[in-house]
Amino acid sequence: MTPEADTLDEIGTATLEVVDEVHSSDPTLPQDRSDAIPTNVLLYPRRPQVLVTLEDSAPRTFKGARKSPEKELWVKAIKRELSSMAMLEVWDVVELDPGFKLVGTTWVCKVKKDHLGKIIEHKSQLCAQGFTQPAGVEFGQTYSPTGRLLRSMIAFALAMNLEFHQIDIKSAFLNAPLSETVYLGIPQALELDIRLYFLKLKKAIYGLKQASLAWYNPLKKWLVTVCFVSCILDPCVFYQRREDPIWLYVHVDDIAIFGSNLRKFKNKVSKEFDIKDVGPANLMLSIKVSHSPKYVLLYQQHFTESLLDLYGMLDCNTVLTPLVPNKHVCPASEEEAALFKKLNVNYRSAIGSIKYLSTATRPDLSFAVSAPSQYPENPEILHWKVFLNVMKYLKGTQSLGLTYPRGINIGISAYSDADWGNFWVSQRSVTGFLASSEVV
Question: How far is CA 304 from CA 55, 116, 309, in A?
Answer without folding.
Answer: 15, 14, 9
